[in-house]
Amino acid sequence: MSEQPFPTHKELELENFTAFERAKLSFVPGVNAIIGENGTGKTHILKVLYAVHLSWLRYGHPQLVMVFQLDQSNSQLIRNGGLRRESADAGGVFGDTTWRISAMPPLIESEDPEISSNATPSFGVVLYSGDIPEQSSMPVFIPAIDMMAHTKGFVSTFDNYRIDFDLTHREIVSLLLSPEKRELDEPAMKLVADLTAILGGTLELQGERFYLATESTRLPMPSVAEGLRKIATLIRLVQTGWLGPGSTLFWDEPEVNLNPILMDEVVGAILALSRAGVQVFLATHSYVILKELDLQLGNDEARFISLRHGPNGTEVSSFSSFSELVPNAILDQYSSLYDRELARATGRKIVREQSS
Question: Model-level pTM greater than 0.85?
Fold first, then answer.
């Protein structure tokens, strides 16, 4: 592999942080796919990397509270069961820069639980070793909740009122509403053309609302199927230049409301972005997404990261190929379905060893 021309996330260490007592992860410049049962911290890995990335662009001011949608009066990043005076710590390496950030417990201790729970935690600034990394564009976080259909008035509402959405939703809407780039390079133009063919029409923006225009109709985006809105989201992010060489994509559950027939196209788009210099992080429950990624990988760098519940918090395992991925809760469940179907058809009980 040639030397990566853009800085990328290389490592992440978590201590006493949400589901993790202690964990260390390493990443590749290409595609990093994270799987695990609910509550193991898949989305939290994406969010802490994204929050720190935003902090670099916002003069070191930590974005953890708004990205994790925390109550200002609670230390909700500190792992359940951790000692009260411990902090939730995260650190990592981006390019040649190391960083660290801590969420401290309440500064006021009291035997009265109501007083202690209302004490304000301290969120430390992001600490760096070396130069603050230069990044030409914002990191992109596509949340599990589709936002392409909810762009009208969303940013101003978020900025002025307390609503039950976190900062990832505000930022993706802001990026979607950005003006298109005047010129795209050839790979970006091809990707837009390929995705537009799947979409079956072109995107139009009027005011702060998107429309899908075809030869026969013009539909407001809330009336378009959510799976197609995911395709539209990718098209818009490429057109506006936010997904391009040197950028980072965090995508939480790309499979949500996406028909499996489109998953090969979405995975192809993800790999096209990776080959264009986008570092990609996926959190997924989908066997089809993972297997498509496995089948479509050429000389691409990929890392498959498995999370599982352990006696002392989430445990982490990493592999360079899908076939090596252990434990694989998704594949185990598919195997269980197959075995039960076979047992029903034959009347014989099937015993299969689970991955571990």
Answer: yes
Q: Which CATH number fits domain 1-137+246-325: 3.30.70.270, 1.10.1040.20, 3.40.630.10, 3.40.50.300?
A: 3.40.50.300
pLDDT tens for 205-223 read 999 999 999 999 999 999 9
For residues 12 and 322, give the distance between their C-alpha atoms in angstroms, rounded to a whole number: 21
Q: Cα–Cα distance between 267 and 11 in angstroms, integer?
A: 24
Q: Which residues pair with 151 in a beta bridge?
A: none
Q: DSSP state, 324? A: G
Which of 196, 199, 188, 145 shows the shortest CA–CA distance to 168?
Answer: 145
* DSSP type of residue 223: G
- Given the structure tokens 């809760």, which residue do they identify? 329
**Token pair 């990093």: residue:** 32
Q: Can you say whether residue 184 is alpha, beta or left, with left for phi > 0 and alpha for psi between -120 and 50 degrees? A: beta
Lookup: tokens for 286: 């989908």
Q: Which of 140, 147, 138 is nearest to 249 (CA)?
A: 140
| Element housing 239 (H / E) | helix 226-239
pLDDT digits (tens, 9 = 90+) for 96-151: 888 888 877 655 444 544 444 444 444 555 565 556 566 556 899 999 999 999 99
Which residue, 306, 309, 305, 317, is CA-closest to 80?
Answer: 309
- Residue ranges of the domains in the chain? 1-137+246-325, 145-243
Model pLDDT for residues 269-287, shown as the tens digit of each residue: 999 999 999 999 999 988 8
Residue 100 burial (C-beta neighbours within 10 Å; 0-12, 13-18, 19+): middle
Closest CA to 64 of 80, 86, 87: 87
